[in-house]
Amino acid sequence: MNSNKSNKFTLISILLVIIAFILFLLSTFLDQYLFQYTMISKVITFTGLILLIISWAIYFMGLKQIKPQTTENVITVIACKNCDYREERPFMEGDYVFKEIGKCKKCSGTSYIYAIYLVPVKK
Ligand SMILES: [Zn+2]
Q1: String of DSSP letters for 12-67
Q2: How far is ligand 1, taken at its centre, from the CA of residue 114, in Å?
Q3: Closest CA to 65 of 18, 27, 117, 9
Q4: Cα of 18 to ligand 1 centre, how many Å?
Q5: Distance from residue 77's CA to the centre of ligand 1 (Å)
Q6: 10 and 32 inside one domain
Q7: Claim to verify: residue 9 and residue 54 sit in the same structural domain
Q8: pLDDT tens digit string along 32-52?
Q9: Which tens digit of pLDDT belongs to each residue from 72-103?
Q10: Are 9 and 59 in the same domain?
Q11: 109 CA → ligand 1 middle, Å
Q12: Ligand 1 centroid vs 110 CA: distance in angstroms?
């Protein structure tokens, strides 16, 4: 899922770069063969530059969007105040250490978040 999203962003940014290069070529062509259109060629070059900047912005936005999804690899450890019961589950929003989260599955005592830790992303 993560790679699909980044591929989409990469594809869009590559497409914009290609369009920008076509515009650059077009402006060079206009400069060389149609001297009366130098103003248009400048506008085309400028548009190409803007497209390049946008493509970079999209690329980095795509990278940023992928980063928060690594929270899938944050593990929350649940422990019980009465017994030695331990349970691990993926981190959920609102989790914090010492937060009480209900009854223990083993002894019906109060269970709470004992620890939260990161697991390196597998590739
Ligand atoms: Zn317990």
Answers
A1: HHHHHHHHHHHHHHHHHHHHHH-GGGHHHHHHHHHHHHHHHHHHHHHHHHHHHHHG
A2: 13
A3: 9
A4: 61
A5: 14
A6: yes
A7: yes
A8: 777 666 677 778 888 888 888
A9: 689 999 999 999 999 999 999 999 999 999 99
A10: yes
A11: 5
A12: 7
